[in-house]
Design brief:
about 140 residues, little secondary structure, elongated
């Protein structure tokens, strides 16, 4: 057989033949490079056209109707034909004073007579009137 790579002959090293392998790897890198520019602007173009389309117009008329009635609960919004009825409410403080009899007190006079003995001190004022004669009244005393 022909001589193998690296100068080895066929008989000696048939089982130990070495074949070198080569592998290439590619490394890719990126870099930015300015190659040109772009400018963007807008232009408004106008044109007139005649449009003939049906339009539906809706108007709402507001009518206020005073009520002034008492209700037990809020009245919900209701629909009566083409009319929507919204009832407005207000809370009102109602103070009511009524007279209520809570109790009666009965006062009864009862008279009884009984005999009672007790020692008491009684006082009485009396008026004492004295007359003086004229000589004593003038400041002359009786020399006796």
């Amino acid at each position: 057989m022909a001589q193998l790579a690296h100068g080895l002959d066929d008989d000696d090293d048939r089982a130990a033949a070495t074949i070198p392998l080569v592998e290439e790897r590619a490394v890719v890198r990126k870099r930015k490079r300015l190659t040109g520019g772009v400018r963007v602007r807008t232009v408004v173009r106008e044109r007139e056209r005649l449009v003939d389309e049906p339009l539906q117009v809706e108007r709402v008329e507001v009518e206020r109707v005073p009520l002034g009635r008492w209700v037990e609960a809020p009245v919900p919004v209701r629909q009566e034909g083409d009319t929507t009825v919204v009832t407005l409410h207000e809370e009102v403080v109602v103070v009511e004073t009524r007279l209520r009899a809570t109790e009666e007190v009965h006062l009864v006079r009862r008279r009884t007579t009984r005999s009672a003995r007790e020692r008491v001190t009684l006082r009485r004022e009396e008026a004492v009137v004295e007359r003086l004669d004229a000589a004593v009244a003038d400041g002359e005393a009786d020399p006796a």
